[in-house]
Amino acid sequence: MRWLVQRIGPLGSAAPFAPDSALSVPEPVLDERPKRDLEELVGAEHVLTAPGERLARASGLSYLDLIRRRGFGDFPVPDAVVLPENPAEVQSVLEICARHDVGVVPFGGGTSVVGGVAALRGDKTSVIALDLTRLDELVSVDPVSRIAVLQAGVTGPEADRLLAAHGFTLGHVPQSYERATIGGFAATRSAGQASSGYGRFEDMVKGVRLATPRGEWKLGVAPASAAGPDLRHLAIGSEGALGVITEVALRVRPVPEVRRYEGFVLDGWEKGTDAVRELAQRHVLADVTRLSDVDESEVSLALNDSVKTKALRRYLKARGVHAPCLLIVGWEGASKREVARRRQETTGVLKEFGAVRIGAALGESWRRGRFSGPRQRDALMDNGVCVETLETAAYWNELGDLRDAVRAALTATLGNAIIMCHVSHAYETGASLYFTVLTPRDEADPIAQWQRAKAAASEAITGIGTISHHHAVGVDHARYLAAEIGEIGVEVLRAAKKAVDPGGILNPGKLV
Question: What range(s) does the FAD-binding PCMH-type domain occupy (predicted)?
Fold first, then answer.
């Protein structure tokens, strides 16, 4: 913390999590008739109305969600939590809610950082959180086609455990992996840390089953089809607004026998992004390819200010590296020979750009600690720091302009702040940028502090890149969607929603 104070000045006051009893939880507003119908369907023990149960499904994991959990402001709370057991019960829940005009917010792991699971009511008097935890089965595995069907409530770790018994894995490991669910991955077009090798989640989806107020909807019958537009991609990314995903058929891969992660350093952001672009365009990206800018690299080194780190700084300076940018690369494969071949192709390109190899220790350290971010964020918030992330993507020729524009917008809004950035996913035509912001928390209005900064960053992104590469739209990005897909695109989404959800009960206030 001493180093952080030196960089950004005095921090805000301590703000630990508030107990549930300290938070405002209104009485549930759910008529007896729909409540009785829901209890008859799933059992009274699976219709929860206690304040703690409702609070637990009231929000996601954004900075604004978490700061409200610490007593700064209120947030909407569902009137009940309903836990169906299977896809048929999910369908029946929607039919009951449509009949009684009750809003439905699907809830998986609760990891949304864009307001995707906020219990908004829209024009509904009542709203329930539809918790899919009990949909936790591996339905089937086809080892010949390499397709597995998983229910929507299965978490990332549980999916890999279930698939490992058959010799397979998804290879989908986002930051939210420990808590997020299969249904959530599909509903938000999730991207994992190893997407360069395994693909984004939508690349894995071969079929999807949804419950809608109009009836069940199943999509995906073949590996490829020219039978009109691929409606799977209307369901994937629909964020619960066009249906509740209950099952997903997914392409799976054999569990890798060998994993190798390493660290490199490049001199400067421009050289680093040029190197990653060359890897992508020569089709020799590692499965994990993550490039940190100078500021993020400096924070990483400062957090590990050991004797070894000081020696590393001297070594890099001796090698002519004046603006260190850390690069993590990782390969996964069926054999040492396969991984060695792919590693040689990747490192051959990196050598052309003067990359300095740091070794496996750095790569393995990153792999072991890659899920520690949320815990670090909690500690920073405990000590008065506003800490939040945002992400976007653009084509290579505009990537530098995008980074500069977002950094300028955040700096102008927040003042003293550390603004870190890394390339989290790379493609032949462009890449994503993932920003992390640290700044002293505004004691007067911490919610407005970040809302202003996020709005400024979103305005800077609009017209250069996408408003979201993998966090989805939710509430936070909805106002910027029309600028990206056009008014006609918004009307197409509204027409689709009207077709499947004429009463507008599904996830009010999200996406469109």
Answer: 74-255
**What does CATH list as the number for 373-471?**
3.30.300.330
Instruction: At 464, list the tokens.
Output: 């250069």
> Exposed, middle or buried by CB within 10 Å (0-12, 13-18, 19+), for 469?
buried
**DSSP secondary structure string, 141-160?**
EETTTTEEEEETT-BHHHHH
Q: Say if CB 190 and CB 213 are below 8 A apart.
A: no
C-alpha separations of 386 from 10, 22, 248, 440 in Å: 12, 22, 37, 6
What is this structure's pTM? Answer: 0.95
**Closest residue by Cα to residue 198 from 235, 230, 159:** 159
Residue numbers in the chain where pLDDT is lower than 50: none
Q: Which CATH number fits domain 138-254: 3.40.50.410, 2.40.10.120, 3.30.465.10, 3.30.450.20?
A: 3.30.465.10
Please report, in angstroms and rounded to a whole number, the separation of the first and last CA atoms in the chain. Answer: 41
CATH architecture of 1-133: 2-Layer Sandwich (3.30)
- Whole-number Å distance between alpha carbons of 79 and 28: 4
Of 177, 427, 434, 480, the catalytic one is 434
What pLDDT is stored for residue 501 in this prediction? 98
Read off the tokens for 279. Answer: 């890897």
Q: CB under 8 Å to 415, separation ≥6 — which residues? A: 439
CB 411 within 8 A of CB 419: yes
Q: What angle do CA 270, 274, 275 make, to 5 degrees?
A: 120
- 242 assigned ligand-binding residue: yes
Known catalytic residue at 434: yes
Domain residue spans of the chain: 1-133, 138-254, 258-368, 373-471
Token representation of residue 102: 């009750």
- Is 363 annotated in a binding site? The answer is no
From residue 487, how far is each of 274, 297, 482 by CA, in Å?
35, 40, 5
What CATH superfamily classification does 258-368 receive?
A: FAD-linked oxidase, cap domain/gating helix (3.40.462.40)
The reply, when asked if residue 244 is annotated as ligand binding, is: yes
